[in-house]
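Input structure tokens:
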């Protein structure tokens, strides 16, 4: 499976702080926002990743992440000049996806919960059609909403319904088989001129090949699209990291735990950041893992 991080858009809800920098490059406590979705793909076992952003912002992502080899990844980049809908990612990334399955994650979504890596890897290995990830919210009318039957099968999807049939919001993480590229090519733009991800999901639902995995209680799904939600996400990360001593979405740690890099490579990455608490954390991880440098 290949992965796409969609990190485009103009971030108008965060103006003026996003007038000169991409939203996905803003800090969420101690690391850039894009670290969080990228770490999710890494935990799923995905090592080929395409970052899609605006022509203006792509050089900054390249400067931050490079070609990904330092994390044992292969990173590519592509432009989305205008925000023409989430499903446009599959048209932009068609050559990158090739004949593989693909995961799409939004660059401003944060996921955190116990046993997440195992759940992701299980879904990758058993994918048949598409897997959506649902999360209970108190205001489902603001989201795409999935309804399941008594046996847990997905039976309907509605976008921002006035009267939601469930409280399960569909999050910004999606797993698709290779047919998604063909489906995206056949979409008709919405009245706003966008290719809607809900239309992709409905196509799979009509085939009987759409699944909704409920992330459930004890899990955190955070959106960072407004000033308040950005601050709340940073506070959440701060509290968890201070209480547990474990950093969320530390790319060096994920790469080490997944076997993408070895302890000595991890140590070298930590030393480059050693004047920060983040860098000290990476150095300690590497030495505890047996780094010899």
């Amino acid at each position: 499976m290949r992965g796409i991080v969609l990190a485009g858009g103009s971030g108008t809800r965060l103006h003026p702080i996003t007038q000169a920098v991409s939203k996905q490059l803003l800090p969420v406590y101690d690391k850039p926002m894009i670290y969080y979705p990228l770490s999710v793909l890494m935990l799923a076992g995905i090592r080929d990743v395409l970052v899609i952003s605006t022509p203006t912002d792509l050089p900054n992502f390249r400067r931050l992440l490079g070609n990904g080899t330092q994390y044992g990844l292969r990173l590519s980049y592509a432009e989305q000049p205008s925000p023409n809908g989430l499903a446009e990612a599959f048209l932009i990334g068609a050559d990158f996806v090739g004949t593989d399955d693909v995961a799409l994650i939004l660059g401003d979504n944060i996921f955190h919960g116990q046993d997440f890596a195992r759940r992701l890897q299980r879904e990758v290995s058993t994918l048949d059609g598409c897997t959506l990830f649902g999360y209970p919210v108190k205001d489902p009318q603001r989201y795409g909403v999935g309804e399941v039957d008594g046996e847990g099968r997905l039976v309907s999807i509605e976008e921002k319904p006035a009267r939601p049939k469930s409280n399960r919001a569909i999050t910004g993480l999606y797993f698709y088989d290779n047919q998604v590229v063909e489906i995206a090519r056949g979409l008709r733009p919405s009245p706003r001129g966008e290719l809607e991800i809900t239309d992709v999901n409905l196509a799979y639902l009509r085939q009987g090949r759409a699944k909704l995995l409920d992330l459930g209680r004890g899990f955190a799904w955070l959106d960072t699209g407004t000033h308040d939600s950005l601050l709340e996400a940073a506070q959440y990360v701060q509290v968890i990291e201070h209480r547990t001593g474990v950093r969320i979405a530390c790319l060096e740690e994920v790469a080490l735990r997944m076997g993408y890099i070895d302890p000595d490579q991890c140590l070298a990455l930590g030393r480059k950041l050693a004047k920060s608490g983040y860098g000290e954390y990476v150095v300690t991880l590497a030495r505890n893992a047996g780094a010899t440098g």
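Residues 262-292 form one domain. The chain has two domains: 2-261, 262-292.
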